[in-house]
Amino acid sequence: MTALVDSTLEVRCVQYRCEFHMPASIDPTSRRILLHIGTHYGAITMPAELGQQVQQQLFQTQIAAPVVHHPRARRWTFITGPAQPETLSPAVSAELFRLYATVACAGSQVVLPSPDDERTGYRIWIQPPENATTLPPLTAVIEATRAIGGRKVPPASRFAI
Predict the structure, then answer these.
(1) Cys-Cys link to 24, which of 16, 83, 105, 137 (CB 3.0-4.6 A)?
(2) Measured torsion, CA atoms of residues 60, 62, 65, 66, in degrees rounded to the nearest 10
């Protein structure tokens, strides 16, 4: 794993582009580093608790994904390979919606951690990127999310006080 140590926004953005081959850019207005979702990259965002369970399940199958944590929102974003046209049926979309999970559509952008984000704890890597060839397929993360989310809570514990 590569350590992400630098002090400037521009250096970090160049690192994302050159070292990890991520098509990152800096938004001039917000001064945030953006990853463009589409041809080479996908993303799925979910509640942190669900994300932790999904990450554990992926690790059990020897799949690792870069994961960004948004502590204040308590959400995790998994960076994946791109979505395929058949990836999201209406039924799968509805199931993910019920789990509060969102798949980024082509043309959207995901904000990547900057040095300032990490220093303040605003946005941090749970699992930093290793390289562009180790991204999991979006479908693998969706299936893990659905598997975890589909587990039924026993009725007695659902209403426990």
Answers:
(1) 16
(2) 90
Pairing outcome for strands 109-112 and 102-103: unpaired
Q: Which one is predicted more confidently, 153 or 55?
A: 55
Long-range CB contacts (within 8 A, 24+) of 12-15: 12/113, 12/114, 12/115
Give the list of residues 6+ apart from residue 113 with CB closer than 8 angstroms, or none.
4, 12, 33, 68, 123, 124, 125
Task: Tell me 87's DSSP state.
Answer: S
Query: Which of residues 8 and 138 earns the better pLDDT score?
Result: 138
Beta strands 24-26 and 33-36 are antiparallel
Give the CA dihedral 17, 20, 23, 25, nearest 10 degrees.
Answer: -50
Assess contact for 1 and 130: CB atoms under 8 A.
yes
For residue 6, is pLDDT > 90?
Answer: no
Beta pairing, strands 75-80 & 67-70 = antiparallel
